[in-house]
């Protein structure tokens, strides 16, 4: 997942020019994970059966991360407090391009469409911008993989429902998990559920809630608010390939030096099709052709 962004990892979203939102939601939790080895021991208080299911799922995701090189096109709806935007996205082996096609319920004006055309053209012809995006993608992907490996140790796991093809695992903070820095504290105060598909042991859903406030400098410098939630949904989009199809993040917070450290975002991807663009130039041409059709 790393020359382009990960196709399989449930903790990584796939943009070359935009950082994965879940990485932000977890307050860059992956930064601290390299300080921990992946333990084979059983965290005290976890159900052994639940841990075995979880470890199978982690192993399956890591293997898929290495083997899945598929690329896709899709329609993306991204809603934040600032905007309601719809994009067409095209993945290539060189990265992903997105073109804004609607804003706040309305198609782009000819002037706004021209700005998008110029923005995309500038990026496609800027090797330094592409290299920067590539480095950010590799960094975020590595963090997400380490976070995935740490799931068995960061939480206490129990088995919930077993319904047809789906098994629900419940998780809560592990009191023996010792985060070494403020960022990693976010991981240690989450509770929620992880739903695994029995077919291939793939992670279908990861949702959680902050069980306590995260305070920075005893709350003087800022905090993340208790009760904040995140929900990542993954589905098979074609040819047995799993992709993140929805991400919902609602975490409040503030910081003294920044306007916010919370996240409020709903991101939904639909209309998945295999991508036929092998390069960014080809993706640019396809996006431009699609824009011309939309205004005819």
Poorly predicted spans: 1-41
State the end-to-end distance: 37 Å
DSSP helical segment count: 7
Strand content: 35-45%
Assign an overall shape: globular
State the major sheet: 11 strands, antiparallel
Q: What structural category characterises the helix and strand content? A: alpha+beta
Q: Strand order across the biggest sheet?
A: 4-3-2-1-14-12-11-8-7-6-5
**Computed CA radius of gyration, to the nearest angstrom:** 20 Å
Mean pLDDT: 81
Helical coverage, percent range = 25-40%
Helix-strand sequence:
HHHEEEEHHEEHEEEEEEEEH
**How many structurally independent domains?**
1
Number of strands: 14
Describe it for me?
- The chain is of the alpha+beta class and 296 residues long.
- It has one domain.
- Helix content is 31%, strand content 35%.
- The protein has 7 helices and 14 strands.
- The strands form 2 sheets. An 11-stranded antiparallel β-sheet has the order 4-3-2-1-14-12-11-8-7-6-5.
- Helix 3 (48-67) packs antiparallel against helix 5 and helix 4 runs antiparallel to helix 7 (280-294).
- The model is unreliable at 1-41 (pLDDT under 50).
Topology:
Blueprint: H1 21-25, H2 30-33, H3 48-67, E1 72-79, E2 84-92, E3 95-103, E4 106-107, H4 110-124, H5 127-154, E5 155-163, E6 166-173, H6 182-185, E7 190-197, E8 202-210, E9 214-216, E10 222-224, E11 229-238, E12 241-251, E13 253-255, E14 263-274, H7 280-294
Antiparallel strand pairs: 1-2, 1-14, 2-3, 3-4, 5-6, 6-7, 7-8, 8-11, 9-10, 10-13, 11-12, 12-14
Helix pairs in contact: 3-5, 4-7
